[in-house]
Amino acid sequence: MDQTLLRQYLATVYEFPSNNGPIRASLDGDIVNDASTLPDLLTKSFTVLTAYNPRSMLLPRKVNEGRHVVLRDLLILGCYRVEACAGYEDDPDGTWREPSWLVHGMERDEAVGFGRVFRQNTILVCRNARPELIVTDPTFDDVATTIVGNWRVRS
Fold this sequence. Notes:
It is a single chain. With 155 residues, the chain is an alpha+beta fold. The chain has one domain. It contains three helices and nine strands, in the order αβββαββαββββ. It has a nine-stranded antiparallel beta sheet with strand order 8-7-6-3-5-4-1-2-9. The chain is globular and about 40 Å long.
């Protein structure tokens, strides 16, 4: 994977829902020695999936929204608890924002499958309070190549 694109993925800020208000976090933090210092959600198992802009190809808004609804419906039919979240660039002048789904309790292999079906470059999986960026596009690297990050909670 191109190193510039990888840095952008690691610096992406994710906005997750929680009972105490939104949690903003990225994958470019320092090693977390004590997971109890993280917000509760970031210590749980979850996956972040999107159907927007397959293979980084910008699609019209209506097409992206339609794909995103289909993804949500498939996840719900699979009996997953799904919540809306988003990824965006941490730049005051940035305009990129991508709606995503926070999927609770999905196994890693199934998440990779969804990423491949919806033609995503990567997906985000959190296990044991560690975020993993997993390649799902075989033109980048071998499918399921994993880049382990560390949570950085943003204010």
